[in-house]
Design brief:
Blueprint lengths: L2 E2 H4 L15 E2 L1 E3 L11 E4 L12 H7 L3 E4 L11 E4 L3 H13 L6 E5 L4 H12 L5 E3 L9 H6 L8 E5 L8 H8 L3 E4 L13 H8 L8 E5 L2 H4 L5 E6 L7 E9 L2 E8 L2 E7 L4 H16 L4 H8 L9 E5 L5 E5 L5 H14 L4 E7 L8 H14 L4 E5 L3 H4 L6 E4 L2 H7 L8 E6 L7 H7 L7 E5 H14 L5 E5 L1 H5 L4 H9 L4 E4 L2 H9 L6 E3 L7 H6 L2 E5 L2 H14 L4 E7 L13 H8 L5 E8 L10 H19 L7 E3 L3 H6 L7 E4 L10 H5 L5 E6 L2 E5 L4 E2 L5 E2 L4 E6 L17 E4 L2 E6 L7 E4 L10 E5 L5 H7 L4 H7 L5 E6 L1
Parallel strand pairs: 3-4, 4-5, 5-6, 7-9, 7-10, 8-9, 10-11, 11-12, 12-13, 17-21, 18-19, 18-21, 19-20, 22-40, 23-24, 23-30, 24-25, 25-26, 26-27, 27-28, 28-29
Antiparallel strand pairs: 1-2, 13-14, 14-15, 16-17, 16-40, 22-31, 31-39, 32-35, 33-34, 35-38, 36-37, 36-39, 37-38
Bound molecules: pyridoxal-5'-phosphate (PLP).
EC number: 5.1.1.1
Family: Belongs to the alanine racemase family.
Enzyme class: isomerase
């Protein structure tokens, strides 16, 4: 970057910017957790719904950051760093990015629409990169924050920008237009995503097309009602309407390819698109239009389109061999996305040791010397323990980094490197497409059978924020990660929660807490069912017991005395009607006598559990529980010199009894995407998707049967697919015998006959499919809620029933 703080002070409406020294900005950051923050960083302290970065300034100063754009200066930090005060830090970030954008004069392509933005962006980058030096937004960085941050990736050597713009509510596009200033506009598919933020479809369209305000051309699928709203010239495409500028006629479609004859300006030519699904064909047509507009010859277009590839948008965390974890980012390698991937590595690292496998970096726009200088400092700041480089160039430039091993090609690495030397480390695999790093991933991945439970970490973050948005900012959140995170995964989720700075984790047994501590989790952890025999281990691992009886309390005190510890945090549970665990009123006097002036323990919190927070028919009962709790709390805390934290609400409690959030809540099932009412469910994102594949397909005749006890008898010729998942994996038998279904290629396939221990069979008579095709057991659809209803249980039981032999895969968009 080549600009200074002094350059931007006039453009960000600074309210106060006193006595600032000259400062040349090397890095812009909004993420206090990034290891890339240092002396060259200008940090923007953003304030969101659930998040205020001003809280972390002190920490950043300790790390060496000296310059901040803030909305207020925390009193104790006044003299410790340099602050520019503005009304709104997000706005200042956007203004800064506009200033930065205007230092360069290359044209921009701006992409919006509901689906396909990132794919079109990645494909255009691929199609145009032989002729342009392109800067583009990494991954799906398309928000009010993501777009400005992406802009800072530009430099004087770029001659084309490709940026996507995504909006979730009104009045956002205007800002993005000012930052991107596209000359070429692209409108991809208009779907239903983010409808909530808008009162109508037309409002959504009106908002989106603001991106095209100053475009010389807009490219879109033929649509008269949208075209007439556009201020500029258009290039339209269609498969059905010959009036479109570019008309595509599908010739045939086989072996994964679709041939399309394109007619443009009375001239026809054929392209072969390496996809068959509608979305990919639409996105490819958008790309063809863009190339035609840029005056590419039809032969070049056909040649390049033929090589389009599937875009993997997600950073995936996978279980690797020898207890390693892999972060698979094997499809892109540019400087911006390397920064993001390194932040993700730090966030998700499950082992102390961090390894990076990195290929040559393309498209940076920087001279190689300068590029790799920057990469070197990134690697050093991120404290990478071991670096493996692959490519002709990168190794030479990074050779001064300690612990580097270099190979010229992926094949050479796979042949010469002892792969078994990878052990207990987190490995980020990041390479440009041409290096085929997916081969490395396949080899390093732990082999397992094909059934996987995919867990969407972004959805977990989203759901957490949804519940937080119902709470006061100061209310603490304990997240229940008992039973292996409700079956979804223990430390991977705990790690994410630590990243989100929740206040407490809750587990059922000491062992679960010990596992989390061993994986490096440092958050306070409450244990719901501590056994007396585990008290010593709990103290050793800093786990806080729930104590629910006088006997339990005395037993704990005995251990505390032996170990001579003081003020050990404990949590007292009161029984107010659940009748599971907890003190009853007739024990309060004895309890008070013990906890009064007791130096061995500190009553950190007092709580109770609601028996029916999910059912408003029991409102009376619930309010009575709350009243009993409040009385008990006042009584017990009267003998203490401090006020313990009070907490009573679980997920449904947060939803139905928000007013009783007190100082803390205990969030469980909602985090994993399931609420206890339809109302609540609508506002959550699905977290886990259980997937398998088709093992074999049989065609049976009328009168023949399927599975044990001949429970299904065909009444006509039927195509039956076998899926390698059964009740030993947690699929309940009540879901079989035509009650339940799975999804194959987005179509329902009914389960035929009894579910077996390790397999089940489904009807695919009407579905085009083959062995190896993906099968969705549950996810968005069928939803666990539906499965639970049909099998006479609740989603909790379905989740925790998924066997540990099913491999968990965590991903992030
Ligand atoms: C499991 C549990 C919770 C969370 O309940 P959800 O209904 O999943 O939100 C809260 N508190 C206690 C004591 C629990 O055992």
């Amino acid at each position: 970057m080549t600009f200074t703080l002094q350059n931007i002070i006039p453009v960000i409406d600074a309210k106060s910017a006193k006595n600032l020294p000259e400062f040349s900005i090397e890095n812009i950051s909004i993420d206090s957790r990034s290891l890339q923050n240092n002396q060259g960083t200008l940090f923007f302290a953003l304030k969101g719904h659930n998040h205020d970065a001003h809280q972390y300034l002190e920490n950043l100063i300790e790390k060496g950051v000296q310059f901040f754009v803030v909305e207020y200066i925390p009193e104790n930090l006044k003299d410790k760093a340099h602050f520019v005060v503005v009304e709104n830090t997000l706005k200042a970030l956007q203004q800064t990015s506009i200033f930065y954008k205007n230092l360069f004069h290359f044209p921009m392509i701006g992409i919006t629409g509901s689906n396909g933005k990132t794919i079109v962006k990645e494909w255009l980058n691929f199609l145009l990169s032989p002729d342009f030096t392109i800067v583009r937004s990494p991954k799906s960085y398309n928000s009010q924050v993501g777009v400005p941050l992406s802009i800072f990736g530009s430099n004087e050597n770029h001659n084309l920008g490709i940026f996507e713009a995504g909006i979730s509510t009104s009045n956002e596009m205007e800002n993005l237009q000012k930052i991107i200033q596209p000359k070429i506009g692209i409108f991809t598919h208009l779907g239903n995503a983010h409808n909530e933020g808008f009162s109508s479809i037309s409002e959504k369209i009106d908002e989106k097309i603001k991106l095209f305000k100053d475009c010389e051309i807009v490219i879109l699928e033929k649509n008269d009602s949208i075209e007439k709203l556009l201020p500029s010239q258009t290039i339209t495409w269609s498969f059905t309407d010959k009036n479109a500028t570019v008309f595509g006629e599908k010739e045939n479609s086989k072996n994964g390819f679709t041939n399309i004859v394109i007619t443009h300006n009375n001239n026809s030519f054929e392209v072969e698109i390496p996809f068959q699904d509608e979305d990919s064909l639409s996105n490819a047509m958008t790309c063809v239009c863009t190339l035609l507009y840029l005056k590419y010859g039809t032969d070049v277009i056909a040649e390049r389109i033929k090589n389009l590839y599937p875009v993997e948008l997600r950073l995936q965390v996978k279980k690797g061999i020898n207890n390693c974890s892999l972060i698979d980012d094997s499809y892109s390698s540019d400087y911006q996305s390397l920064k993001m991937a390194l932040d993700f590595l730090e966030q998700q690292k499950l082992h102390q040791k961090k390894t990076l496998i990195l290929s040559d970096i393309f498209q940076s726009g920087l001279p190689l010397q300068e590029l790799y200088q920057k990469v070197t400092s990134l690697i050093q700041n991120n404290k990478i323990d071991r670096l493996i480089t692959i490519g002709d160039t990168i190794g030479n430039y990074l050779k001064d980094i300690p612990n580097i091993i270099s190979f010229s090609s992926t094949q050479e690495f796979l042949q010469q490197f002892n792969l078994n030397s990878f052990e207990n480390e987190t490995i980020l695999i990041k390479g440009a497409r041409s290096f085929d790093f997916e081969e490395i991933v396949v080899i390093l991945e732990e082999k397992n059978h094909e059934t996987v439970l995919e867990i969407n970490l972004d959805a977990i973050s989203y759901n957490l924020n949804f519940y937080k948005s119902k709470l006061k900012p100061e209310t603490k959140v304990m997240v229940m990660v008992k039973a292996f995170g409700y079956g979804n995964g223990g430390y991977e989720i705990a790690k994410l929660l630590e990243h989100h700075k929740v206040d407490y984790l809750g587990v059922a047994f000491a062992d679960e807490g010990i596992e989390l501590r061993k994986a490096g989790i440092t958050l306070p952890i409450m244990v719901l069912n501590p056994e007396n025999s585990s008290f010593n281990a709990m103290i050793a691992y800093d786990l806080e017991p729930e104590i629910y009886s006088i006997t339990g309390l005395n037993a704990f005190l005995k251990v505390a005395q032996q170990r001579n510890i003081s003020s050990y945090p404990i949590h007292l549970k009161i029984d107010t009607g659940m009748h599971r665990l907890g003190y009853e009123p007739n024990e309060f006097e004895r309890l008070k006598a013990i906890i009064k002036n007791n130096n061995f323990i500190k009553v950190e919190s007092i709580f109770t559990h609601l028996a029916a927070s999910d059912d408003v028919a029991f409102k009376e009962f619930t309010l009575n529980q709350i009243r009993l709790f409040t009385e008990a709390f006042d009584n017990l805390s009267s003998v203490l010199n401090h006020k313990p934290i009070r907490h009573i609400l679980n997920t449904s409690g947060i939803f139905n009894y928000t007013n009783y959030q007190m100082e803390m809540v205990r969030l469980g099932i909602g985090l994993y995407g399931v609420g206890n009412s339809d109302e609540e469910n609508k506002q959550l994102l699905n977290v886990s998707t259980l997937k398998s594949i088709i093992s074999q397909i049989h065609t049976i005749e009328a009168g023949e049967s399927v599975g044990y006890s001949r429970k299904y008898i065909a009444n006509k010729q039927t195509k039956v697919a076998t899926i390698p998942i059964g009740y030993a994996d947690g699929i309940r038998r009540a879901w079989g015998n035509e009650k339940g279904y799975v999804l194959i290629n987005n179509q329902k396939a009914i389960i035929l006959g009894n579910i077996c221990m390790d397999m089940l069979m489904v009807d695919v008579s009407e579905i085009t499919c083959k062995p190896g095709d993906e099968v969705i057991i549950f996810g968005e659809k069928p939803h666990v809620k539906e499965i639970a209803n049909v099998s006479f249980t609740i989603p909790y039981e379905v989740f925790v029933g998924i066997s540990q032999r099913v491999k968990r895969i965590f991903f992030k968009n």
